[in-house]
Amino acid sequence: MNILRVRDYASVSEKAKNIVLDRISDFSDTTIALPTGNTPDMMYSLLVKEYQSGKVDFSDVVIFNLDEYVGMDPENPYSYNYYIHNRFLKHVKTERSYVPNGLAEDLDRECEAYEDKIKEEGNLDLALLGIGRNGHIGFNEPGTSFDSLTHVTDLSEDTMEANARFFPRDLDFPEKAITMGLKTIMGAREIILLASGNEKANAIREMILGEVTENLPASILQTHKNCNVIIDGDAASLLGNST
Ligand code: F6R
Q1: Which CATH number is correct for 2-231, 3.30.360.10, 3.40.630.30, 3.40.50.1360, 3.40.30.10?
Q2: Are strands 227-232 and 190-195 parallel, antiparallel or unpaired?
Q3: Distance 131 CA to ligand 1 centre (A)
Q4: Which of 87, 144, 176, 186 could form a disulfide with 70 if both were Cys (CB 3.0 to 4.6 A apart)?
Q5: Around Cβ 18, how many Cβ atoms within 10 Å?
């Protein structure tokens, strides 16, 4: 793991944006997994700005969203499909983009098809990740097998509590999601995990310094050959000087 400590959230976003731009210009036909949530928000705005000023071209980039809530209409503003279109995909021209369909009648088949699609596209070159305060990546909650492929998962109480903050009261928070599995994510040639803020400090410490255990899914990243972790001072606050 390569740990990049930067000052604040804006610097995490800037650094992540620069790495994404580097990778896109280094390779043609890049396949990238993207996260949703608060953490990557500013990075997407920065990428869109660069695109609008003509400094970057995503036309041979293929995008896979990491996850989606089960039962959520893609047009629903709280769906991850809506998020990624609204923040990023509608502003840039990509080659192709995919988001799991949380309304699929046969969810297991949808998961298999998603996994097959990633293979057909030549596997992931880059996976960008956030991290949950319980150490989840994608929606691979504590206890998920390191061998997992794209699957349907029950969201943990902690995740529901963390994410329900942003939901309107009249919309029931989904209890399940489709997520790329840990093996799917680990199959990426490069991984970049972003974290900002005190509420991630404990998960970051365990991910970097703790044992590699399915109880802290992100700890698997210690075993990846090319993983960059970009964290601000608050997210790094429990690391001491050891990294
Ligand atoms: C979402 C995802 C999750 C989030 C994590 C952190 O697509 O994969 O693992 O990255 O829950 O969310 P934020 O950034 O909202 O704190």
Answers
A1: 3.40.50.1360
A2: parallel
A3: 5
A4: 176
A5: 13
How confident is the model over 87-100, as pLDDT tens digits? 999 999 999 999 99
Does the Cβ of 102 fall within 6 Å of ligand 1? no
Q: Taking the model in full, what pTM does it have?
A: 0.96
* pLDDT at residue 172, rounded to an integer: 83
Cβ–ligand 1 contact at 135 (below 6 Å): no
Question: Measured in angstroms, how far is the CA atom of residue 36 from the centroid of ligand 1?
Answer: 6
Q: Which residue type sits at 107?
A: L
| CB distance 66 to ligand 1 below 6 Å | yes
* Domain parsing of the chain, residue ranges: 2-231
Q: Look at residues 197, 193, 198, 215 and name the one whose alpha carbon lies nearest to residue 206.
A: 215
Share above pLDDT 70 across residues of the chain, in percent, rounded to a whole number:
100
pLDDT digits (tens, 9 = 90+) for 20-39: 999 998 777 999 999 999 99
Residue nearest to atom 1 of ligand 1 (CA): 36
